[in-house]
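Let's sit down with a protein and look at its sequence and fold side by side. Which protein we use is up to you, so please pick one and set it down. Label the sequence line and the structure token line clearly, so we can match residues to local backbone shapes. Go ahead whenever you are ready, and we will take it from there:

***
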Amino acid sequence: MRTKVSIIGAGTAGLIAGRELAAKGISTSIYDQKKELGVPVRASGIISINGLRMSGISYHNAVTNTLRGARIHAGSRVMKISAREPVAKVLDRKKLADICAFEAEHEGAKVVKGRRVTEGDIKKLHKNSIIIGADGAVSTVARHFGMGNMGRYVLTYKAEFNLDIADPESVDLFFDNKAFPGLFAWLCPNAKDILEVGVGIDSTGGNSKKALERFLAVKEVREVVGDAKMIDNGASIIPLQMRRKIVDPERRVLLVGDAAGQVKSTTGGGIVYGSAAAIMAANAISDNISDGKSLLRYQEMFIKKYGRDLKLHRYINSFYSALEKNRIGSMIGVMNFLGMDSFISKYGDMDHPSLLIKRFFTRRAG
């Protein structure tokens, strides 16, 4: 019998996995409970240019803005980071989903929309197919197969406002572990006239919508937003820790993206690592079908290539999450004094902190 693959969840990671599998001639079906992919939009769309290239997505028609800088705020301290070349794109997540779905279907994958997959459905699908769970942080697939918990989550709430933006190429990040424990708040120009205002807080830190309301009342934010019209808002849940088990080789089940916890703990961004994992998972499945190689190679390959950076993201998040706002501000002051703002502007990599550390010590040694 020809081996089939059933992917639960048609987010970016699930659709990329479907694209890669179908391109290898493997019968693939992707199921999603939404009738319209990418709607409603709950996740921010900032993605590094290097990460987009790695994903293989033809993303250009989804771009709404280009970013080259950031301002990091803690109390009265600010660190400005500005690269000579653009470092990230802001994407329309609805258009991105449509592009990824088109690419998957073009390769031969079947995308089934408006189909909520229950644990009973998973049990039936599993009888004659390999299962990929790409169904988000609260994964039905992971729960059904007992693949453990991730431990840490953040709750986000964001709103979009229509207004003229003074500097549409820079993001503002606000660190305050009393107001935004576990992550931060942000102002992001999604387009030249659309500002996203958002907060991320630890899942034990209270109500994310109320946290956003408090952030909107901050003087600096109030002065920017003014009486601008809110055009969208919504909440999401993001994992900050990878599951210990992202593949069950005996039962032929794999997890990718947020379902696996393949997310940068420092920012909550998951598309770059999720895309890489989707490609690795597809390769591992192909090798399993053709040569009988263990599916466990997927987890081994992912950890070998990205495990160190994911740990560094987690350590950095744990470090600043334990600091009071004035201590974060003092640290920013010291970093500015040491010229770290210029160094990060020149050598920073939003996906791979290990490269930044390596370059820093190489420069010091030289």
